Amino acid sequence: MTQITFVRHGQTDWNLERRIQGLTDIPLNDTGRQQAERAGRELAQTAWDGIVSSHLSRALETASIIAACVGLPEPTVVAGLEERAHGAMEGMTFDERQASFPGDTVVPGLETRDAVIQRVLSALAGLEHAEPGRILAVSHGGVIGSVVRHATDGEQPTAGQVIANGSYHDFDWTDGELSLIRLRAIEADRDLPPATLPQR
To answer: Are strands 50-53 and 2-8 parallel, antiparallel or unpaired?
Structure first.
């Protein structure tokens, strides 16, 4: 059995502006670094066997901060943990996205949620053999939301639940099956102004 705790990276300026990031490599801001330290202090109450991360700098810096807090070496970058590709709408606010791609308009370069799940599950299968035990995986809101939906057959996260920057969520990975242990979603991210933009 491997326990995977997914951590969402800390805040970036694009999070603050509520812009869709996707694979665009936007760094943490100072609030994001504080969120990573806060998560690291809380996670240090548990013993961890390893920490892995998406290659995107906002996740990798979050993982480095957390690793120092919990007493682990620098994180290992694992392919498959990067954010969902949002193609032509990366950099847009929600209103700009709606104006450019209304309704069911196809967004060029948008990765399907099924594709996200398949690559994340492949990454977890590799971790099961390489780093069994209790693992921290620093990733992204779109990835974590997709994984939660997969593990709960779409029952969570419910409408209005937010996977906040710096939050962490526990899963069990056994024999190729992922199950949710604990989701720490909240009704509003206290470090962001109110808005209606979905998780990304």
So the answer is: unpaired
Distance of alpha carbon 106 from alpha carbon 119, whole angstroms = 22
Give pLDDT, residue 138.
98
Q: How far apart are CA 129 and CA 12, in angstroms?
A: 33
Tokens representing residue 196 in the block: 């209606």
According to the model, what pLDDT value does residue 176 have? Answer: 87
pLDDT of amino acid 199: 42
The two tokens of residue 198 are 């979905």
CA distance 25 to 37: 21
**CA dist., res. 62 & res. 44, Å (int):** 14
DSSP 19: B
Model confidence, pTM? 0.93
What domains appear along the chain, each with residue ranges and CATH number? 2-182 (3.40.50.1240)
Q: Distance of CA 199 to CAs 50, 105, 122, 165, Å?
A: 27, 19, 23, 10
pLDDT band at 132 (very low <50, low <70, confident <90, very high): low
From 3-12, 52-61, 126-135, 176-185, the region with the lowest mean pLDDT: 126-135
In the three-class reduction of DSSP (H, G, I as helix; E, B as strand; rest coil), residue 72 is classed as coil
Nearest to 191 by CA among 27, 36, 26: 36
Asked if residue 157 has a cis previous peptide bond (ω within 30° of 0), the answer is yes
Catalytic residues: 9, 83
Q: Is 96 helix (H, G, I), strand (E, B) or coil?
A: helix
